[in-house]
Design a protein that fits this description.
single chain; 2 domains; alpha+beta; Aminopeptidase; 4-stranded antiparallel β-sheet; 12 strands; elongated
Length: 250
């Protein structure tokens, strides 16, 4: 068995097919762990599948082609034996992988909730597009919540709600998914000054409506222990669609 590295263009194409097969139940964070790090064909005379190995998260992608599905367990055993694979991140949308990990008796832990939305949202809440001139203000109020403010502003993906003094109340954002361009991940941040006043919910509703008006399906994620974000997303109409799981040690 050999590992043959795959370029980014081909890994995106292959993982799109994989996600179609399991129902696309992932968020933007998880897709980047599959396509932005090391990605390989499992080669034994022919390419039998694809794996991704993330430097911090371990094995984040495991996709065996249908022609070789009868070798699934053997190939999984081989991959889990690789010295680079000490952890694992996966979605329970992939029922076969989930059952195979359960069968091996590994301790599975919750990482995050993934949310989907099946209804149309309407809101009168107003927000403004973020502007480049205010980047320093946004960083001061919201920190590194957004990693690349300028790029996101240039793409019209960031919205701001200001108070009467021009101070940011909340930031709403969406990021188009790479593997499913018809979806985008919703996120929001409320400034400390305006926490627990209902602005988080209103911000989420605004971003949802903005996406739906563009014909884009909203998607969201929150960490398993973040009960406040979970409640806000549920109130906005999202429903938990699946879970992101991890194995910290084999």
């Amino acid at each position: 068995m050999k590992l043959i590295q795959i370029d980014r263009e081909n890994r995106i194409k292959i993982y799109r097919k994989y996600l179609q097969e399991i129902g696309f139940g992932i968020d933007g964070y998880y897709e980047t762990t599959m396509i932005d790090e090391k990605c390989y064909f499992l080669f034994e005379n022919v390419n039998k599948g694809v794996i991704s190995i993330h430097e911090e998260r371990g094995l984040t992608g495991f996709y065996i082609f249908k022609e070789y599905i009868d070798e699934y367990e053997t190939l999984l055993d081989y991959v889990l034996s690789l010295r680079e694979v000490t952890k694992m991140l996966f979605t329970d949308c992939d029922r076969q992988l989930f059952k195979s990990i359960q069968k091996r008796g590994f301790k599975i832990e919750m990482q995050a909730f993934n949310f989907g939305l099946e209804k149309t949202i309407d809101t009168d809440y107003k927000m403004e597009l973020a502007i480049v001139e205010n980047i320093e203000l946004y960083i001061r109020v919201f920190g590194d919540f957004v990693l690349d403010y300028k790029r996101r502003i240039d793409n019209n993906e960031l919205y701001i709600k200001y108070d009467s003094n021009g101070y940011p109340i909340s930031l709403g954002a969406y990021e188009p998914m790479i593997l499913n361009p018809k979806k985008a991940c919703v996120s929001m941040k409320v400034s400390n000054k305006y926490l627990r006043k209902g602005y988080g919910l209103q911000t989420v509703l605004f971003i949802i409506k903005t996406l739906q008006d563009k014909g884009i399906e909203p998607n969201a994620r929150c960490w398993y222990l973040n009960e406040i974000s979970k409640k806000t997303l549920l109130k906005s109409g999202f429903k938990v669609s699946n879970h992101l799981l991890r194995v910290e040690s084999f």
